Amino acid sequence: MTEQDGGNGSQKSSSLTSSYEEALEALSSLIIRRTRADGSNFGDQFDVLFEYIKMLDLEEQISNMKIIHVAGTKGKGSTCTFTESILRNCGFRTGLFTSPHLIDIRERFRLNGIEISQEKFLAYFWWCYDRLKEKTDDNIPMPNYFRFLALLAFKIFAAEQVDVAIMEVGLGGKYDATNVVKAPIVCGITSLGYDHMEILGNTLGEIAGEKAGIFKDRIPAFTVTQPEEAKHVLEEKASKLNVSLQVAPPLDAKLLNGLTLGLEGEHQYLNAGLAIALCSTWLKRTGHLGDTDLERTDTLPEQFIKGLTSASLQGRAQIVADTHFKSEQSNELVFYLDGAHSPESMEVCARWFSLAIKENNADQTLFHRQLDNPKSSHEIVKMQHAERGLRRKSTPILLFNCLTVRDPQLLLPRLMETCAGHGVYFKKALFVPSLSVYNKVGSQASTTLTDSKVDLSWQFDLQRAWENLMQGNKGKITDTISEELKDDMEMSDSNCEHSAVFSSLPVAIKWLRDRSQQNQSVRFQVLVTGSLHLVGDVLKLVKK
Question: What percentage of residues in the chain have a pLDDT greater than 70?
Fold first, then answer.
């Protein structure tokens, strides 16, 4: 490359970045607070989605897509990730639409397992945005943020001519923007639980009814073992639509021939089992069986095993060693990231964390996920300590935030009690506001290191809930005060015996790094949970 070429390349890169920020700014303009379809505004009604599809000339293209549609409370993203990985390893060109993103909006749109490039994203984004701007009016206004993203996904997958599109429901099912699909190849319902109750209903039956909204007449569907109330509603809804609803068994680990799933946690065998059922049915119904033997129950096709063991998904049971300090001791601050935000998933997360740090401490190794290369992000690399033979003291710390619609009285007890049941006790709980702001995407979607205007009232509520929980369990839980955490709390806005509130996430990360540097005989193991937004924000800071 000549110097002139290099200059042009630099200009092109700068122009691309500028255009990308413009696109994200335009996307931010579509973010609204109202989420549920209702009749007060035609723009909020579900049927208006079909008007948008006409405007974008996507009717025929969507009807020709071979779609796998997945709803549920827990495990949607994992199930979709396993499904995509299996079919990609079977040789198909895949499109995967998931939510939310952790770092970059393009994570939501994956082609053959890789997030869409900036160039392609921009081309498809402006094609959809400009056309909708031109054709919408006061009666049919621009679609909101998630609806636009779902429409964009359909456009991308149609234009890229994918063999299979795996669509993850954003919220609920019946009124979700992905539910414009009239004839998917197969549908899946993952584990159901209590989440988004302000929108979906207060009982498991009501929630199941919303999720079952993705069922289509005579289209086969699979689910996992569900609570009785949810199971009854799913079966009732399926029966009315002549849907063959089957329960997919969890994957038997022996079928992996000694390998392990690409996504960590015992609960992933449930999601993997559902993914296998979805892929098998997709292959059968699309006439793509070929040499794949799906009839045997004592073995799995090689492509399925490869897909399951190579799947990767950021922010779920992910372990990242902090590499901020380039020294021998640089790996004594480790972040355990999981975006759990319902009572059931909080329990699963706590179990995973407890087992992970015990194995970590017993082996005197670190599990570090390689984040820079998406292809190898699932690989776990054991990094031996520089100072062999030295057993470092384990100090578990909780870094937590959740949306105000969540109930900390349901989340925090499940987390603390499950960890305590495994002999793991948090030395300190840190509560922080999200770095991201919810009405922006892109580089403008974050607060500064010291934002004096930030409202910490919710974090103080979380802190009070934690302190009350600790006081109520004083007789059961011991050894919770740690000498290395007693001092140097000036950076916090509110320091209590068992917890602290920080004005921002960067301040909390700096405090953790300072503690790690000052206590080099201690391994700080930080569980980051309660919100995928928080997990994404931590990844942004740790990857810098």
Answer: 79
Name 40's Cβ contacts closer than 8 Å, sequence gap at least 6: none
Burial class for 173, CB neighbours closer than 10 Å (0-12, 13-18, 19+)? buried
Tell me if 495 sits within 8 A of 442, measured CB to CB.
Answer: no
pTM above 0.85, yes or no: no
pLDDT value, residue 376: 38
Work out the pLDDT band at 18, boundaries 50, 70, 90.
Answer: confident
Q: Which residues pair with 397 in a beta bridge?
A: 428, 526
Give CA 342 to chain center in angstroms: 13
- Token readout for 458 is 């919710």
Q: What is the per-residue DSSP string for 205-257?
A: HHHHHHHGGG--TT--EEE----HHHHHHHHHHHHHTT--EEEPPPPPGGGGT
Give counts: helices (H), strands (E), the chain: 16, 17
Q: Which residues on adjacent β-strands are paired with residue 60?
A: none
Q: How far apart are CA 432 and CA 505, in angstroms?
A: 6
Encoded tokens for 498: 């068992």
Residue 149: CA count within 13 A, CB half-sphere: 26
Measure the CA–CA gap between 373 and 378, rounded to whole angstroms. Answer: 10
Mean pLDDT score of the chain: 85
Distance CA(90)–CA(84), nearest Å, equals: 10
Q: How far apart are CA 69 and CA 173, in angstroms?
A: 10
User: How many CB atoms sit inside 10 A of residue 423's CB?
Assistant: 9
The two most distant CA atoms of the chain are separated, in Å, by: 72
* Residue owning tokens 């033997």: 293
